[in-house]
Design goal:
This protein has 241 residues and is mainly α. It contains eleven helices and no strands.
């Protein structure tokens, strides 16, 4: 019996060490370890590497460029404040976007409680990967050549119809190229749940975009609000897996 306990403990130790070893292969993790040792230059380098990408993802989550920039500053502030407690267990980007997801979710809940409606639209760069995925998800080719600005506008509206978890999974998948496992860690779900979440998101995008591609009807015009419906109907399934 004692030998079994030792064996289990050894395996757990090896798993933990393996996780740390894999994380240390990430150059950004190594930078963050320098930040933990109060290296200000390393922190500046991380900000430079991630600021634009972080703002783009946050903009799609909260719907406003200026607000996204403010939230990005809060994310980096939280990273710096947490530096002494940092332990490399995953890629740095996974940890960073976990924090970003929490910051965005808290900000949206606070805005909802205040009943403030922000209708300003951002116009940040870098949306091409998302646009390509959304249009491909429709399974259709537009009957006419679309203006790039029009495509960006339609894609933004289509993605905004997804519920919060579907939207975040799509953004992390397409902007950051994260694996199911990394997205699952960032969103506190299983990889199988992320696979299911992305599948439902693509299906919803296809359904939202078909009226536009066939008849020119823009997303949201005469269509149900999937943000509420998806949370009520699909929420349990996204937890399972």
């Amino acid at each position: 019996m004692v030998r079994i306990d030792i064996s289990i403990g050894t395996r757990l130790l090896l798993v933990g060490e393996s996780t740390r070893t894999r994380a240390l292969r990430d150059p950004d993790v190594r930078l963050m370890l320098q930040v933990r040792d109060d290296d200000a230059t390393a922190f500046e380098e991380l900000v430079l590497r991630y600021q634009s990408r972080l703002v783009t993802v946050l903009e799609h989550l909260v719907g406003n460029r200026d607000w996204a920039e403010d939230l990005a500053q809060e994310v980096f502030l939280r990273v710096y404040r947490a530096r002494k407690r940092y332990t490399p267990r995953a890629k740095f980007s996974t940890w960073l976007f976990t924090i970003a997801n929490n910051v965005a979710s808290n900000a949206l809940r606070a805005r909802s409680r205040r009943r403030e409606v922000n209708l300003a639209e951002g116009s940040g760069p870098g949306a091409r990967p998302l646009e390509a995925m959304v249009m491909a998800s429709s399974g259709q080719i537009p009957a006419r050549q679309l203006d790039k600005a029009e495509v960006r506008d339609v894609v933004r509206m289509a993605v905004s119809t997804l519920n919060d978890r579907q939207r975040l999974a799509v953004l992390l998948s397409k902007f950051e190229g994260m694996s199911y496992a990394d997205i699952a860690e960032a969103m506190d779900l299983t990889p199988q749940a992320i696979k299911s979440l992305l599948s439902r998101a693509r299906g919803n995008l296809r359904e939202v975009l078909l009226p536009y591609l066939e008849r020119g009807q823009r997303p949201g015009a005469g269509q149900p609000d999937r943000r509420r419906a998806g949370e009520a109907v699909g929420g349990q399934g996204e937890q399972d897996g």
